[in-house]
Structures are given as structure tokens and as C-alpha cells.
Automatic annotation (TrEMBL), chain A:
Gene Ontology molecular function: any one: phosphatidylinositol binding
Protein's GO biological process: autophagy; protein transport; retrograde transport, endosome to Golgi
Comp. bias intervals (Low complexity): 386-401
Domain of life (superkingdom): Eukaryota
Name by which UniProt lists this protein: PX domain-containing protein
UniProt keyword terms in alphabetical order: Autophagy, Endosome, Lipid-binding, Membrane, Protein transport, Transport
Source organism of this protein record: Hesseltinella vesiculosa
Alphabetical list of PROSITE patterns matching this protein: PX
Domain annotation PX: ranges: 1-139
Pfam families documented for this protein: PX (PF00787)
TrEMBL record, chain B:
Region (Disordered): 1-52
Keywords: Cytoplasm, Lipid-binding, Membrane, Transport
Its membrane topology: Peripheral membrane protein
Domain PX: 1-151
InterPro entries: AH/BAR_dom_sf, PX_dom, PX_dom_sf, Vps5_C
Gene3D superfamilies the record matches: Arfaptin homology (AH) domain/BAR domain (1.20.1270.60), Phox-like domain (3.30.1520.10)
Protein name: Sorting nexin-4
Claim: Coiled coil is one of the keywords in the record: no
Length: 519, 420
């Protein structure tokens, strides 16, 4: 993966070495109740990697997750277990913090979170992550030092790709200019990338399915299995029964009681295995969908930003054109007055300009080209991508001709306003020529900034699209692998359960055969 | 109080009292000793719906060593009644419940109900076949082998043999008066049956609850299978693996359902087992009644003797009535000594009658008690057999389920691990 990030330098400190060594599994070894400065109790989780130990509470995990998401907007950051809901509080009699099953579940899921991060080719180089794992580093320190302390509020103001920065020898601030638009969440793309649209749809469908359908049906099975408490009662009943019989019959019935008791503990074991290795991953994957949504949204917004810059640039250029035309006309008038009756030989057919088939200089305008969607992998990209064409050609081709405004005042209300303000300006202005010259200068500067920003953001968008695609592919592979592991775990839990019960019932069968049946 | 002149042991005149083995309680065993008794195998098969022109009914095939015949439930009822009447000291195995809900619901031809009935009727006949006395009863033989069973004359005869069955049992046995000299053996037997009853009803209750859950579980696995399959439609590159898992879950669901069916069978066996114990309890009550009769007769005899002695020695009546009667007689001028002599004579007669009755009652009571002891043996032996069969079937079903379960899921593991 190429991703590098202006706020992020891949770190290969000793912790990274630990993560890539053989003994690289991160364990959450235990939990303790502690009190914070205000005296309120919380649970601290003990983390161990190799010989290194650290301690963090849930809110710090949450904070880490948020930080990684901000630092790596093109990466699908693994989810953490959700906060305890009102439902959880309502359903339990003890306090949620005290409930052993809840704490165990959190431990498992937080451990899974850390290990997924550790396995990620980009995230495992992140030093913020390293510092989380490091012993004796309070999380507040990490929050208040770079890079977290210097990140811009809005990710749209970030340049994601380091290479671009290196090429420009520039700081990030160009995107912080007031001229650079920040798209709103509801912005609809003019030319959405069908590939990524498809990916979004696919992601939602799978996530919905997971959380509605699959989550429900697997929960039913596990809940039903949990009612193995019935078996404990049954075992006692059989034992009572055996006391009433004699010799071999009594033995056999006693053995049944034992087999039934064993069923109870075997069932409990199976349920625990299923919870950890089957049910929880399904919950995780339902959560992953949310993260993917965010990543795709980021890319979408960048794309939106590019479009908005283009639009802004186009309008500025038009404005420029108007100004320079006026400038030109003024000059021609002067010349004409000087030459008395020359007609502008550079006059262009006004209608052609209005229809947009010809631009202000009389050049014909061509139509844009489209994208071809292809897929085998639902997230897969087509091999030849139109994103490799040169920036300037794209600039011309992306803007839709329909949006070009008419030069003349009467074709729309905006034009009316412009015309009115123009007239007013003319009325107020002491020196329209100087004002116009001033405006031309300003507009030229704006155009320069916008052009540069457009360049950067287009390149960035290319990089972002590539990285997002790569991480989607990686995620898909990991998901399939995880799904396979889940199915295997489910099957193995059942095999183990059946094997143990088979043993006890075979003993029963043997004892039954010992019952003498003569007549 | 029982009629003193005839004991319940006398045989009703029956059609073919051939061998001595048809008598109920020979004190010397002309019956083959238990160890060499070979029960004839008998089975009930092939239920078929038939009609006698008026109403539909179900008939069953009865297969025994010497014959195969068709009988209907009514015929079983006759057999039960006739055995009950003629062998009161024997534990007659009970019939499956006649007044079941299925009658009310009109469901008495459903496969489930008919199958359960067939099973219970088979058990009924097997229990009789295993009983050294009952199995030799000509009624039983007739039931198994007679080809004229359905003739109208045979039917008429049978109608006369049946008496109303409810009376004998309930009216006498309701009050469980205390016996003076209870025999520990019988107390133990009763105790055992009571405890058995308790255990069984608890077992039945718990098992039906867990079994319902097992049935529901089967549906849950089907739902899971569908869910996983649905996921395969979305995650198309893993569709094969998911479909494989889905199939296994469906297969497992079926296996669970089969297990639930076996649990139901086991429940059914337990129910029949419990019913047989209740029959045993009734016989114990009857035995107690016999002993009670004897004890009450003895008491009556004692008080009568005392009465006579008192009268003889001129001790006046102790109570008010006697005193008034005496006074009245004085007034009438009756001859006291003559009255006394007549009274003594009457009492003597009564005493003789009582002595005879007591002797008979004693015989009856002892013979009954002896038989009940033997019944206990047959009962226990039968139960061991039944338990053995039922437990074997139950344990086999469990073993089979777990073996199949392992295979089903192992298949998934092998297939998925191969797909690397």
C-alpha cells in the first residue's frame, strides 16, 4: 500500500518490532476496578505484548479508535465493542460494571480490536498506536502531543498524500484558504464514480443483512442452548429414580442421571465457545459496515471537494473572462474611436457562446468521457482507470456544458442580480476602470490558488481512491477468512459437545447391557 | 363387607376350563416354576381403519406363536375386564387411557394417536404373556387364537362375562382403614410404588418441558441455515462454503428433531410403566382389604363371644337400652332365665357361623397375600425387562444422535479446511 499521510510517518520503533515478531499476539490479561481522580470507579484492562504491559480503560480505547480514524481516513479501522446501552443496564440486576459475563465479553472484543490493528499493514506502523501499547505512557500525554494535537479540525483541509507535499514543497495550509470549499454531507456528485457507489451499496446490504438477519438467527440458537439449566433438574430426578430401583437397573438409571448432568456442563462450554468465536465476530462485522461507510464518505467528500473547486474555478474564470472582455471592449472602443469606423474582427457569434458550443475565445468544446464499471470482487476496480489522464484535459472534460452560464443578463435571475450590481457599481464607481483593473488582479490570484488546489486535490483524490480501494480489497479478504474461521469454530464447538456427550451415553449403554434379563 | 359365603376366588363358569392351570391359586405349584417359564412372544402390528357398518374403528393385527388375528380396542377391553374379574390377586396390566383428549378433539384416527395406542396395546399383551398365570388363562388364549371371536354368539357370551368393572375397585377400596398387624413386606411394596409414582410424575413433567425446547431448537437451526445461505447470496466468493455450512445446519436440525421424537417415545414408556405401578397399588389395597376383613371378623367374633359369656353368667347388660329392656321385661313378667337361654343359643349360632367365616377369610387372606408376594416377583421381573428395553432404545437414540452430529459437523470442518 502506498499510503502515507502528512500527519503520519510510518514508525518502526521497538514496539513495531515487537508487533512483527513471533510472539506478537496482544493479550488482555485481566481487568481491575479502579477509581479516578474524582473518586468514580471504572474498569482498567491490562494489556500485554511480549514482555511489555500497559493499562487502559474503555474510554481510552474509544479515544484511540477515534484518533486512528482521523489520522487514517482512507483506512478501515477495526471497531471497538459498543458502549453499554440502556438495555444492558435494564436487563441486569447487578451494576453492568460488575457483571462478569459483560466484562469478559468486553475483554475479548477489545483484545480482538488490538490484534486487528496490529495486523493491519498501515495501522501497525502508527506511533500513536505504539504509544498506547507502551508501558507507563498516560493516554492524555499522547492526546496532547503531535500528531494528534496539530491535526486540523476538518479532514477536508488535510492533504492525505505525502508525495504531493514533497513535490510541492508546500505546507498544508493551501487547503485552509477560505477560497477552498468544504462540501456538506448532502452534496450529490455530478459524476459519481459508479465503482465506489456500487461498493457503498454492497456494504450497506451486507451490514443490514448481518445485523438484522444473521445476528438474530444465531442469537436464537445460542439463547435456546442456554436453557440447558433444565438438564440440571433432570439429572436430580433421575438420581431419585435410581434410588427406587435395584442393582443393575438402579445403576443404569444413575448413569443416565450422570450423563444428563454432563450434558449440562458440556452445553455451557459450547455456548461460551459460540459466543466468543461466532456471535461476537458477527457483531463486529455489523459494526465494520459503519466504518466502511465513513471511509467511503471521506472519499466521496474529497471527490465533492474536487468538483466544487472546479465549479468555483470555472465561475472565477468566467468572471475573469467578463472582466477581460469588458477591458477588451473598452480598449477597442478607444481604438475604434481612434480609428473611427472599424468593426471588431474578433467578434464571435453570441448564440454560439450562449449554447456553449464555443467558448469566449471561439474554441469548440468537446464532450466528457465516462467510466466503465467492472466487477468480480464487489469492491474490485477495473484494470484501466480513467483517473490516470492528465489534469488539464480532465479539467476541460469534467465540467458539464449544461452548467455554463449565459453571458447575457436576461437568461436567469442570477444574471439579473449580476447585471444590477454591475450597473450599480458603474453608478457608484468613481473610477470603473481602476476598480475593474483591481478586480482583474484579485480574480487572477484566486484563479491561481484554485488551480493549484485543484491540482493537489485531484492528485490526492487519485491517491485516496487507490488507497481506499486497496483497503477495501484487504478488508474483503480478511472478512472471508474470518467468516471461514467462524464457521469452523461453530462446527468444532458442536463436534466437541457431541464427542463428550457420546462418551457418557456410551457408558450408559454399557451399563444397560448389564441388566440381567432372564425369565 | 364381603359376602361371606362366596369368596372372590371362585371361578365364574367359563367356556373351557380345561387344565388345572386355569385355576388361579393352587397352593402347590402345578404351574411351571418361574425359572423355566418361557413367555410366548406376541406383537401388535398393522393398525387399519375399518367400519362395522355403523361407525369407523381401528383394528390391529395380533401376531402370536400359534395364530394371527385381528382385534379392536373393544376386544382388549373385554380381555382386561375378564382377567380383572377372575384373577383379583394378580396385577392385571392396564389398558392405554380410553378417555383421551383425542376422542374429544375427534382425532382418534391420527397416526400419532394410533401409533401410541398400538405401542401400549403391545405392551399390555406382552405383560400378560410374561405372567405365568395370566398367560395360561383360556381367555387370553381365546383372544390370541380364536377365529370365531367376532361371531355374534361369542360376543353375546362375552357380554355376560363382563361385569361393571368400576364397582369392585372403588367402592371397597376407598377407605384405607388401618390394618392391625401390617406385614412389613407389603408396607415396603407400597412405599416403593408411592416413591416410584412421585419420581415418575416429576420426570414426566421435566422431560416434557425439555423436550419442547429440543423441538424448538430444531427450528432454530433451520432458521440459521437459511440466514447463512442468504449471506452466501451476498458474499458470492464464499458462497460455496456458506452453502456447505447451511446444509449441515439443516441436517443437524433434522437429527435434533429425530432425537426429540425418541424423547417422546421414552416419555410414553415411562407413562405406561407408571400406569402398571398403579395397577400394582390397587392389588395391594385389595390385599389389605382381605386382611382387614379377616381382622374385623375376628374382632366381631371376640365381641360376640364376650357377649355370650356375659349373658350366660347373668351379668346384665351394661348399657341403658339393656337396662330399660330388662326393666320392661320385669314389668311384663317375662321369664328372665328363658330369655337368657334363648339369647345364648342365638349367640352360639352366630359364633359358629363366624368361626366358619373366619376360617374361610383367613384362608382367603393368606392365599391372597402369598399370591401378591409372587405377583411382586413377576412384576419386578417384568419391569426389569421393560426398563431394559426402554432404556436401551433411549440410550441408543442418544448415542446415535451424537455420532451423527459428529459426522455432520466434521464434514464441514474437513471441507472448509480443504479449501485453503
Amino acid at each position: 500500500m502506498t499510503t502515507a499521510n502528512s500527519y503520519y510517518t510510518p514508525c518502526s520503533c521497538n514496539i513495531h518490532r515487537l508487533l512483527t515478531s513471533d510472539d506478537s499476539f496482544i493479550y488482555i490479561t485481566g481487568s481491575q476496578k479502579q477509581s479516578d481522580a474524582a473518586g468514580k470507579a471504572y474498569v482498567a484492562y491490562n494489556i500485554r505484548l511480549g514482555s511489555m504491559e500497559s493499562k487502559h480503560r474503555y474510554s481510552e480505547f474509544e479515544s484511540l479508535c477515534k484518533a486512528l480514524t482521523k489520522l487514517h481516513p482512507t483506512v478501515i479501522v477495526p471497531p471497538i465493542p459498543e458502549k453499554h446501552s440502556i438495555m444492558d443496564y435494564a436487563a441486569l440486576q447487578t451494576r453492568v460494571k460488575d457483571d462478569i459475563a459483560m466484562v469478559e465479553k468486553r475483554k475479548r472484543m477489545l483484545q480482538t480490536f488490538l490484534n486487528r490493528v496490529a495486523k493491519h499493514p498501515v495501522l501497525n506502523h502508527d506511533h500513536v498506536f505504539h504509544r498506547f501499547l507502551e508501558s507507563g505512557v498516560p493516554w492524555s500525554d499522547v492526546l496532547h502531543s503531535p500528531p494528534l494535537s496539530i491535526m486540523p479540525k476538518n479532514t477536508m483541509q488535510m492533504i492525505v498524500n505525502n508525495d504531493i507535499l514533497a513535490a510541492r514543497g508546500n505546507s498544508n495550509h493551501i487547503l485552509s484558504s477560505h477560497l477552498i470549499p468544504i462540501p456538506s454531507a448532502t452534496y450529490i456528485l455530478n459524476n459519481p464514480d459508479p465503482q465506489f457507489e456500487e461498493s457503498e451499496q454492497f456494504t450497506y446490504r451486507v451490514a443490514n443483512y448481518m445485523s438484522n438477519n444473521l445476528e438474530k438467527s444465531q442469537r436464537k440458537v445460542i439463547r435456546r442452548l442456554e436453557l440447558a439449566n433444565d438438564y440440571a433438574e433432570l439429572g436430580a430426578v433421575y438420581n431419585g429414580f435410581s434410588l427406587n430401583e435395584e442393582n443393575e437397573v438402579a445403576n443404569a438409571i444413575e448413569k443416565i442421571g450422570q450423563a444428563v448432568d454432563a450434558s449440562y456442563s458440556n452445553m455451557g462450554e459450547m455456548v461460551t465457545m459460540l459466543e466468543g468465536d461466532f456471535a461476537e465476530p458477527i457483531q463486529e462485522y455489523a459494526q465494520f459496515a459503519h466504518t466502511i461507510k465513513q471511509v467511503l464518505k471521506f472519499r466521496h467528500m474529497k471527490h465533492a471537494q474536487v468538483e466544487m473547486i472546479e465549479t468555483s474555478l470555472a465561475s472565477k474564470k468566467e468572471h475573469m473572462q467578463e472582466l477581460s472582455d469588458m477591458e477588451g471592449e473598452a480598449r477597442r472602443l478607444e481604438e475604434a474611436i481612434a480609428r473611427e469606423h472599424t468593426i471588431g474582427q474578433n467578434a464571435v457569434n453570441v448564440d454560439d457562446i450562449n449554447n456553449g458550443t464555443v467558448d469566449a475565445d471561439g474554441n469548440p468544446i468537446s464532450a466528457p468521457n465516462g467510466f466503465d464499471p467492472v466487477q468480480s470482487n464487489p469492491y474490485a476496480r477495473p484494470p484501466t482507470s480513467p483517473t490516470t489522464s492528465s489534469p488539464s484535459a480532465r479539467r476541460a472534460s469534467i465540467s458539464s456544458p449544461a452548467r455554463r452560464r449565459s453571458r447575457y443578463a436576461w437568461s436567469g435571475p442570477m444574471q439579473m442580480v449580476n447585471a444590477v450590481s454591475h450597473t450599480i457599481q458603474g453608478l457608484i464607481d468613481v473610477d470603473p476602470v481602476a476598480t475593474r483593473r483591481n478586480q482583474i488582479g484579485k480574480t487572477k490570484d484566486a484563479i491561481n490558488i484554485l488551480e493549484e488546489a485543484l491540482d493537489i486535490t485531484q492528485l490526492d483524490l487519485e491517491g485516496i481512491s487507490k488507497d481506499v480501494q486497496a483497503d477495501l480489497d484487504r478488508f474483503q479478504t480478511e472478512k472471508i477468512s474470518d467468516l471461514k474461521d467462524m464457521l469452523l469454530a461453530f462446527a468444532k464447538a458442536h463436534i466437541r459437545y457431541c464427542q463428550k456427550n457420546l462418551e457418557s451415553w456410551q457408558e450408559v449403554k454399557d451399563d444397560i447391557d448389564k441388566i440381567p434379563v432372564q425369565f | 363387607m364381603m359376602d361371606m359365603t362366596s369368596t372372590p376366588f371362585t371361578m365364574q363358569p367359563g367356556p373351557v376350563p380345561s387344565t388345572s392351570t386355569s385355576r388361579s391359586y393352587p397352593s402347590t405349584s402345578s404351574i411351571s416354576s418361574p425359572s423355566s417359564f418361557e413367555p410366548k412372544p406376541v406383537s401388535v402390528t398393522d393398525p387399519r381403519k375399518e367400519s362395522d357398518g355403523q361407525q369407523p374403528f381401528v383394528s390391529y393385527n395380533i401376531v402370536s406363536k400359534n395364530a394371527t388375528v385381528r382385534r379392536r380396542f373393544q376386544d382388549f377391553v373385554w380381555l382386561y375386564n375378564v382377567l380383572y374379574n377372575n384373577y383379583p390377586a394378580c396385577i392385571i396390566p392396564p389398558l392405554p387411557d380410553k378417555h383421551r383428549l383425542e376422542y374429544v378433539k375427534g382425532d382418534r384416527f391420527s397416526t400419532d394417536f394410533v401409533e401410541k395406542r398400538r405401542d401400549s396395546l403391545g405392551r399390555f399383551l406382552q405383560r400378560i404373556a410374561r405372567h405365568p398365570i395370566l398367560s395360561h388363562s383360556e381367555y387370553f388364549v381365546m383372544f390370541l387364537e380364536s377365529s370365531e371371536f367376532n361371531d355374534s354368539s361369542a360376543r353375546a357370551l362375552r357380554d355376560s362375562q363382563e361385569t361393571v368393572i368400576e364397582s369392585l375397585g372403588d367402592s371397597l377400596l376407598n377407605a384405607f382403614t388401618k390394618i392391625r398387624k401390617p406385614d412389613q413386606v407389603f408396607l415396603d411394596m407400597k412405599d416403593r410404588v408411592d416413591r416410584m409414582e412421585e419420581n415418575f410424575s416429576l420426570l414426566e413433567k421435566t422431560l416434557s418441558r425439555t423436550n419442547k425446547r429440543v423441538d424448538d431448537l430444531s427450528h432454530d437451526y433451520v432458521e440459521l441455515a437459511n440466514s447463512v445461505n442468504g449471506l452466501g447470496q451476498l458474499e458470492t466468493n464464499f458462497q460455496q462454503g456458506l452453502a456447505l455450512f447451511s446444509n449441515a445446519s439443516n441436517t443437524y436440525a433434522n437429527q435434533v428433531k429425530t432425537l426429540a421424537a425418541h424423547e417422546t417415545d421414552w416419555l410414553h414408556h415411562i407413562h405406561d410403566y407408571m400406569a402398571y405401578h398403579l395397577s400394582m397399588k390397587e392389588v395391594l389395597k385389595l390385599r389389605d382389604q382381605k386382611q382387614l376383613d379377616f381382622e374385623e371378623l375376628s374382632e366381631y367374633l371376640q365381641s360376640t363371644v364376650k357377649d355370650r359369656d356375659r349373658t350366660m353368667h347373668g351379668v346384665e347388660a351394661q348399657n341403658l337400652t339393656g337396662f330399660l329392656a330388662g326393666k320392661l321385661n320385669e314389668v311384663r313378667g317375662a321369664d328372665m332365665s328363658k330369655i337368657r337361654r334363648e339369647r345364648v343359643l342365638r349367640l352360639d349360632d352366630r359364633i359358629h357361623e363366624l368361626e366358619d367365616a373366619i376360617e374361610q377369610s383367613n384362608e382367603v387372606s393368606s392365599a391372597f397375600s402369598d399370591q401378591v408376594k409372587k405377583e411382586n416377583e413377576y412384576f419386578t421381573r417384568n419391569n426389569a425387562l421393560e426398563m431394559h428395553e426402554a432404556l436401551k432404545a433411549y440410550a441408543s437414540a442418544k448415542v446415535s444422535f451424537y455420532q451423527q452430529g459428529i459426522d455432520t459437523w466434521q464434514h464441514v470442518v474437513d471441507a472448509l479446511e480443504e479449501q485453503s
